[in-house]
C-alpha cells in the first residue's frame, strides 16, 4: 500500500506540473482571452491543495517518513 501511495503522489505532482505548463502555454498563445489560463491556474491550485493533503495524510498514517535534509 505504501508503494502505491508514493506512486500516486508522484503522479499527482506530475499532473500539477503539467497543469502549470498548460497555463503557461495558454498565457503565451491566447492574447485576447485569458479564461483558459485562469482555469488552468485554478485547477493547479486545487490539485496542489489535494497533493498537500495527501502528503499530510500519508505522514499521519505512517506511510511517509519525514526526515532531516542531512539525515
- The strand count comes to 0
Q: What is the count of distinct domains?
A: 1
Sheet/helix structural class: mainly alpha
Average pLDDT across residues?
Answer: 91
Q: What does the model show?
A:
With 71 residues, the protein is mostly helical. The chain has one domain. It is 77% helix and 0% strand. It has two helices and no strands. Helix 1 packs antiparallel against helix 2 (35-61). The radius of gyration is 16 Å and the shape is elongated.
Short précis:
The protein is mostly helical and 71 residues long. The chain has helices at 2-29, 35-61. It has one domain (2-61).
Features:
71 residues; mainly alpha; 0% strand; elongated; transmembrane helix
Amino acid at each position: 500500500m505504501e508503494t502505491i501511495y508514493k506512486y500516486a503522489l508522484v503522479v499527482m505532482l506530475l499532473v500539477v506540473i503539467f497543469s502549470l505548463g498548460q497555463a503557461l502555454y495558454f498565457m503565451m498563445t491566447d492574447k485576447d482571452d485569458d479564461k483558459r489560463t485562469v482555469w488552468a491556474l485554478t485547477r493547479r491550485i486545487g490539485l496542489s491543495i489535494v497533493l498537500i493533503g495527501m502528503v499530510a495524510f500519508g505522514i499521519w498514517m505512517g506511510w511517509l517518513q519525514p526526515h532531516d535534509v542531512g539525515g
